[in-house]
Amino acid sequence: MRVFKKIGYYFLIFLLLLFVKKSEANVVLKVVSVNPSKEQVQKVDIKTYLPKETKPEDVIDKADLEIAYDTQQGSYFVFGTYELKPLEVLERNIELRGDLWLIPQADIDSLRVEALQMNEILKNTEMAERAIFLLNGIQAKLNQIVDIQSDPPANPERYISNYRENVKTLESIKADMALARSLLTQVKPLPAGMIWKMILAIVLFLGLLGLSFYFLWHKQIKVINEESAFYVPEKSSESKITRE
After folding, report:
1. 3-class DSSP state of 144
2. Distance CA 185, CA 171 (A)
3. Bridge partners of 43?
4. Please, which contacts does 78-81 make with residues 24 or more away whose CB atoms are closer than 8 Å?
5. What is the pLDDT of residues 93-138, one digit of tens each?
6. What pLDDT does residue 241 have?
7. Domain 3-100 top-level CATH class
């Protein structure tokens, strides 16, 4: 018996998970299965894994498929059994939340603000250069995520791939943020003893300055008094009145 006749006695299932265009903000996955037999009606078992980020509550429309969890794979999958006529093609669309593969803008803004705040705190410290270096890197990575998300590709496979790359970038940003926070603990605060020494030095300086002004003023007063002691006023001439 030829190979083609043997195939007729077995189920030959082509189960394809095709990524089609996004439906508005959502992602639509298409499941395709075919009965290759030209003569026999066959039952087809469908089992298709969903992206690992997907949970049952993220599935908007699963058609007539069921959802279960595979503990070994660590992913949810859809499944169903169908009876297909000879050469019949079965198609099912699975609609998923599109924002599931987006980094929330609020998270991006929060990281950006925190990075700017830490840079401001470290600006006038010995860690200023390292803080600026980290800030520039964090800002560049955040801008990269924003740029990628602002121009989503039409192909959801690429759309999900971009999200996974953005997640890696986000983890890198969080590592940089942790390093920046550690710089705050490395900045040496001025010891209390040093602060009192600085205050004492300022007080002494002001005291010496005041004392020098006092001696200068006292010397000027002494000079004025000495000049006054050697000054003899001229006697005024008296006029005589005579009678003739």
Report:
1. helix
2. 22
3. 83
4. 78/31, 78/46, 78/47, 78/48, 78/50, 79/45, 79/46, 79/47, 79/48, 80/45, 80/46, 81/43, 81/44, 81/45, 81/46
5. 999 998 899 999 999 999 999 998 888 888 878 888 888 999 999 9
6. 34
7. mainly beta
